[in-house]
């Protein structure tokens, strides 16, 4: 219905270099400019409020009590809907919503979408402030889908310090969720991703009531045995092979370079085990990639350079890696690494979950261009680098490396001081530190923009070597 094209990565805690869980996604929209802001909603108690979607008419009462939570909504709510997209709540539960997925006509014939059901524009608002764990997120959202139905296909990401879950809603009322094994990772890209479902393993799979009976009654299973969710509910068409599966292939190629696979295969695995342990930087690299170092890179002259849709795009509005660490105290453990720029060219900034507010440059995004806004600042940087890619990309690579070093130092130094604090003092400290980090990165971005513009002025085609003897 209002589905958008994104790319998702999920990583279990034993598959990461530091024992953290990670969920990550590129939030791609229909147009290059869909301004967003990054805010923190305070906890609420005893409210009486109804949520009504301006997109599809969905309406539902909001619970009286809700946790503090982060959100990254649109600023044009009346025109484009709220779409709060991603954030942690105060219980260190991460939600990223949603990875658009598409059910096939066979299953939708018997359980069609519900026009005014719970869609992506309302889903994070209805779920994030009210859950206590990743598994609880699946249960809670499953109850909402049973009650209200869904008007579209969606994949929803959840994590806490121990678990990572991926939930795919594929028809009006049916869904399956799978826990990512601790030692595994998964990549999804706008196509039903979950494969074999084990209904005898409720610790690692959850599902909508009656889904097995639904499939049996309507003769929807094409396989001779087993229950392959992708085969039953998903699509397998030409668009998938150009738009979706190549992104999964590239992510798996990066994490498992030793394995040869076809970028257009419909049978790329969902659950994978990487050749090495995965870092935040690894996930950022994949989300910022455009088939780098392959013949499919649109920045090359290869005849196949534009055969596939790249992962990073000019219409990626925000890209995020939501990390919950297990080697620091819980109150400082959750960090959302996020960029408003194109993830190929802009740095991911680390924002702590335990803050009371965000910096004004992130919290107040104007609709029209204003470089005081983080959204417009980092999109400006991205556009400049792409416009003279061959001439500017190395300077951008060097800049991003410097940013990663400085931001890793920021996290380590903040961790050391934060460990001495608790309660409101800790929240205030992390809030102040995040704002200082934003200011530091702003100066660094402005410096690079200035240098690139200065260099760009020498690259004009409207030039001529004048012979002074003429």
Automatic annotation (TrEMBL):
This protein's superkingdom? Answer: Bacteria
Catalytic activity line of the entry: an L-aminoacyl-L-amino acid + H2O = 2 an L-alpha-amino acid
Keyword match DNA repair: no
Is Nucleotide-binding tagged as a keyword? no
Matches recorded under InterPro entries: C69_dipept_A-like (IPR047804), Peptidase_C69 (IPR005322)
GO MF entries = cysteine-type exopeptidase activity; dipeptidase activity
Any idea which UniProt keywords this protein has?
Answer: Dipeptidase, Hydrolase, Protease
EC number(s) for this protein? 3.4.-.-
Class of enzymatic activity (EC top level): hydrolase
Q: Which GO terms describe its biological process?
A: proteolysis
Similarity comment text for this entry = Belongs to the peptidase C69 family.
Q: Which PANTHER family match?
A: LD30995P, SECERNIN
What is the designated name of this protein? Dipeptidase
Q: What is the organism of origin for this protein?
A: Lactiplantibacillus mudanjiangensis
């Amino acid at each position: 219905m209002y589905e958008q094209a994104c790319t998702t990565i999920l990583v279990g805690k034993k598959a990461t270099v530091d024992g953290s869980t990670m969920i990550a996604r590129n939030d791609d929209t229909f147009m290059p400019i869909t301004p967003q802001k990054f805010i923190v909603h305070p906890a609420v108690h005893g409210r009486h409020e109804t949520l009504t979607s301006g997109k599809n008419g969905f309406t539902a009462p909001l619970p009286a009590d809700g946790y503090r939570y982060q959100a990254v909504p649109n600023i044009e709510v009346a025109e484009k809907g709220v779409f709060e997209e991603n954030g942690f709540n105060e219980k260190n539960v991460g939600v990223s919503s949603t990875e658009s997925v598409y059910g096939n006509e066979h299953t939708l014939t018997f359980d069609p979408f519900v026009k005014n059901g719970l869609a992506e524009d309302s889903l994070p608002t209805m779920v994030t402030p009210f859950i206590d764990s990743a598994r609880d997120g699946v249960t809670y959202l499953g109850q909402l889908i049973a009650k209200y139905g869904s008007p579209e296909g969606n994949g929803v990401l959840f994590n806490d310090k121990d678990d990572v879950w991926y939930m795919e809603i594929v028809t009006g009322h049916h869904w399956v969720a799978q826990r990512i094994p601790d030692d595994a990772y998964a990549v999804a890209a706008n196509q039903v991703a979950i494969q074999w479902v084990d209904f005898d393993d409720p610790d690692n799979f959850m599902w909508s009531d009656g889904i097995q009976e639904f499939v049996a009654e309507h003769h929807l299973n094409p396989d001779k045995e087993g229950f392959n969710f992708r085969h039953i509910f998903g699509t397998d068409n030409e668009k998938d092979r150009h738009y979706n599966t190549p992104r999964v292939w590239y992510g798996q190629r990066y994490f498992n370079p030793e394995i040869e696979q076809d970028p257009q295969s419909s049978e790329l695995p969902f659950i994978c085990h990487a050749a090495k342990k995965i870092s935040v930087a690894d996930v950022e690299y994949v989300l910022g990639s455009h088939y780098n170092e392959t013949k499919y890179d649109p920045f090359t002259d290869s005849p196949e350079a534009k055969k596939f849709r790249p992962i990073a795009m000019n219409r990626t509005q925000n890209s995020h890696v939501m990390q919950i660490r297990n080697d620091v105290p819980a109150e400082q453990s959750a960090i959302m690494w996020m960029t408003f720029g194109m993830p190929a060219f802009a740095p991911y900034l680390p924002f702590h979950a335990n803050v009371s507010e965000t910096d004004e440059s992130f919290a107040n995004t104007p609709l029209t261009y204003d470089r005081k806004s983080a959204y417009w600042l980092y999109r400006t940087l991205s556009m400049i680098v792409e416009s003279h890619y061959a001439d500017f990309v190395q300077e951008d690579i060097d800049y991003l490396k410097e940013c990663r070093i400085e931001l890793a130092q920021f996290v380590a130094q903040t961790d050391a001081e934060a460990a001495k604090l608790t309660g409101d003092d800790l929240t205030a400290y992390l809030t102040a530190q995040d704002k200082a980090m934003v200011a530091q990165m702003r100066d660094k971005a402005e410096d690079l923009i200035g240098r690139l513009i200065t260099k760009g002025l020498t690259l004009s085609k409207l030039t001529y070597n004048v012979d002074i003897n003429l």
